[in-house]
Amino acid sequence: MNVTGLPAPRSPPPQNSQEGLLNQNSRSNSREALYYQNQQPRSVNALQIQPVNVSRAVSQTVTELLVRIRSLSEQPQVRLEYMNVLLKVLRTIPDLHQFPYIMHILKSLRLCAIDPAKEVRANAYRVLRHIITTDKLAALASESHIDIFILKALTRDARYDLEREQALKYIRGLVDFPGGVDSISPAVMRVLIAIAEHTEDKFRNICLETICEILLRSVEKVAENGGLKTLVAALLEGPPELSEMLVICLVNVLDTEESRMYFRPTVELEMIVSCLTDVVVKGVSQEEKLYACAKAITLMLRSWTGLIYLCIDDKRVIRSIVEAISLPQEDIKKIILEMLFVIFKIDVPKWYPEFVTARGRSVSQSQPSAISEDLLSEHNSIIENPRMNLVDHYLAMVLVVFLEAGLMHALVELLTESNKQIVTTSTILIGEIIELSNRLLPLSFSTQILSLPALFRIASNFEDESKRHTATVALSCIDNLPKTKERLFPHALDEQFNPTWVARTLNVAVTSHQVNAARINRQLDQAKAKNVVASGIVMDDTAFRNLINDTQIMSGKEYMLWNWDATLELVRGFAEYPRRLDENIKLVRRLLSFYKPDNHLFSDIKRTKASASKYARVGCELLRTLIGIPEGVKFLHENQWLDQIRESLTQLNPIFASSSTVEPMFSKDRMEKTLTGDYFIMIGTLCEYEEGLRLLEKFKIFDLFYHLTELRNRDDLIKKIVTTMDYRLDGHPRVILSKVMTSGYKQARLFSTIAIRKIMQSNISDFSNWGIPLLVTQLYDPVLEVSQQAVSILDEACNDPKNLDSVIKLRPLLDHLGEHVNPLMLRFLSTSAGFHLLSEMNYVGREMGRWFEKGNELYVTKLEISLSESLADGPGKLAQNTKVDTKKTEPQTTENTETTKNSGSGYAPLHFYGELTKTSEGCKMLKQSNHFRAFAQFIKEYGLKESSGTDPRVLMRLKAVLWAVGNIGESQSGIQFLIDANIIKNIVDIAEKSKVLSIRGTCYYVLGMISRNTIGAEQLLKLGWESTDTIQGSVSRFCIPKDTNQFLSIPLWQFKGSLATNPTKIRFASTTTDPVEQEILKNIGNMTNHILANAASKTLSKMRFEYPHCFAKVEVYIGALQLLSVYHYRITARRFIQELFDRVTFTPATMDRIDEIGGLKPLAEDLSDDSKEKYNVANIPATLAITTPQNESKKEENKGVMQPKIVKKGFEIK
User: Of 102, 489, 1045, 1164, which has fewest CB within 10 angstroms of its CB?
Assistant: First the structure.
């Protein structure tokens, strides 16, 4: 290859250019290389760079590069160039650890790590990070004592952040590949921990993350160097964004007995709880620490490992938390109460602030704004999910733990407080806990809660009239709380409506149809109560005329002066007493004229949150009133309101729009900024009635809708039409929806498919007859996004057996949809017709084999991720962050809390074996496969085996088998498999005796599944596990052990994480015998003691001045490194010690002396010719030569060679 020149060198970067680089996501090697190159061209001759001839053997090329890299006479920019070329060459060599020159390479880079130029030192660590990608190379680097210079780099101050960053990246690179952690020396671990303890250090957070990564790979390495204590302290000191990561890592250590031994029982983690029990001084910083403490406790209680650990020693930690409520500090009480709201996942309603400020007023005095049924129908309704709610089952045990720790008694004591906010919050919490107990716990548990003996005792104590009055008011509020929620339920129905609030308000045991009926009946009762007040039944003519006068409608046409609340009551009164409508037809005509488009009143109002709900609500109620009586229908036929809407819609015709200069009434701008779009809501109200459909047909509104859905540039109109029409009656709305779903416009098909989910959730009685065929048609849509949405909606719709039967009868073809359709196909297995359909497709046998081999493990991964996300969702600051708002310390409302995206549902996903055993054909197939026999044998063999906790693969397989058995035992037909194998007793024993805490939690969920049928519940009752009953008497979803101590207790273990029992291996042995040198090392050792540190530092400073030659000897420096490797020093002390030895010159002779002390002998300079022949020129691409300025285009093409070829895992930083 002809190399005629070299590229212009590039200058090093400025000192602060690496600010924030650790947070970047890219790991591009070429970008890093360019970072160390100059930006200003200089003459080639000035720098005297020699070309590298890559046409020779690799060993010769590497030798030449190493000579130039080691040469101190070369300028730093030149050495940076050669180091980058060396990296290119080395990355082409396979099995680099066998390369004959590997130790020479490491030694040369080691010399670069002590170069006077910090850019060269930083680049040396960068090159090392990219070439050391295996455990063998990491071991060779460790033998070369690279950790000495990593230690020096990390100890430096902020002026050397560039070097510190690359040294830290090198350490993180070791964590990324298997076995790399073993090469991290104790000295490096100690300095990482020291940085993590220094709250002002810029690299503190990344050091904490690095320690956590090392902890997941080697608990022993972190524990023996004191890292666990640092991680626990970081939970309280912050930063808040790392709290969840820290808790996950610590909980992972506590899971198995082998790693749990590195924690002292009831010591380390209890330090967190001590913040709530200490008598503290008020202040913002202290309040932030309390919030951090509460958040750490909340995070621990989101896992079985954390819950069981906090329950050791007879729930001592939980009892401490409960007892802390009685402390005199109000801040602690408020924080603990908010923490309990988050732990029990109690969604604080929107009316909480009103309830706080007016706790004593009667419920009837509150006047929530009414919401009509048309607006209610736009929100999600409750669709019964037959699967087990894992979150509720977990909350049942958490609730039992706190109740047994005396929570109710502590909350009752708070009712006697003078702070009204604390009293009110406690009252709401007591009421919610009673509701949770009634819903989640067996009768034997809930009856003890419902009695509230302590509160009744205070209420009946006539000696203290003040406390008795407070207790009486609290009892009244607790008793009226369900009624208050019923009364104020519409407050929750806004844009962020949470259906779980309805589920808790209603009885969760009823079916979805019963829930829908109960919701409708409740709304009708509320409407009837208001209508009776507004109608002539209880109001005489004078009162009714006063109500008309209150509306101010007849006083003038200025709608801004009208009383719209009174108008709403008046309109509802007309529906109850039609005679008054005839008497006040003039008022109705004036009110309806307000909504006529040509009058430009309603249609020109600017869209705001208040106007959008107020005027549309009255308009929809007026239409319901008119359409419900013959006189009103006649009035609408004769009125021009619908005719004017038709004319306004006609303006959207492209032919009309091109010839008209007037802006159409339903233009896109007016739809966004005014209330014009609410006309579609009012048209949707008419679609609820047969007479309304006939009216819309008469005025040809539907004809216009058919044409409007074909407009490509008006997505807003299509969305309005699809979402506002009512589909309960068979007619044009369903036809229009079908037309849009099969439109040639992709966005229209996608949106209409998404919109049909809400239609399905409204529980329309005949949805299986017309809605399911529409969704099945969407399965064949050419756009993958549309077909996937259809699969998701069908999966949810099949919770209703009628919808499932309808899908199976249509016999859809699903093979083209891939893995995304598997949940839907699993539902087919639950019926005989579906089983036969899938058997014809050869799906059942193929899927059974896949699940037996790997599907069960994938199921565990999916379920645990979903469950973790579901448990992470919660209201309040503790669920989001720990930032303190001193102006408002009460729990935040649900409506003001953003919900985590893509969060889990909390329900157990469908399982192949669980669905298979719901039919007799599936049970027969399972029996013939002998899969269950293998599952039962595995549980009996490995369930309580001591070695199971040390092998992650066995643990994963055990969890997978347990979930498979639990899903099989959930059905009435599948439970017989468990009884025949006598496996239920084994699962109970694992739940109560396993030393792996996460396995106990898995068994708890599995037993809950088994209890979902009567036979399983009876078997569990004999073994001491009690199931909950619904109000209908059937067995519900959950089961609780009668003796919770047997399930939650773990035996105390022998602590083995101390330095005394596990002395750290010392790499270097000091050879000094000089008394002065020994005195120096003695004082360095004294700096670990904070009492002696000050005197020791002064002595060392004095000795450095008197004996400077001692601090220049490498033997003394090695002795100091020995102490830094074994004992704990703060980062400031480490910097001081390193500065003491700044006179140590690291020459090649010095490095040889270090190798000699470390037992590493110098290598021969020459290599045999046999070893060189293995690496020839064919192994190096020609593009690795240093290019010249004349070849800039080639240089740009060759940048791809610099890309890393190693896939990194874990936290990625640049």
Answer: 1164
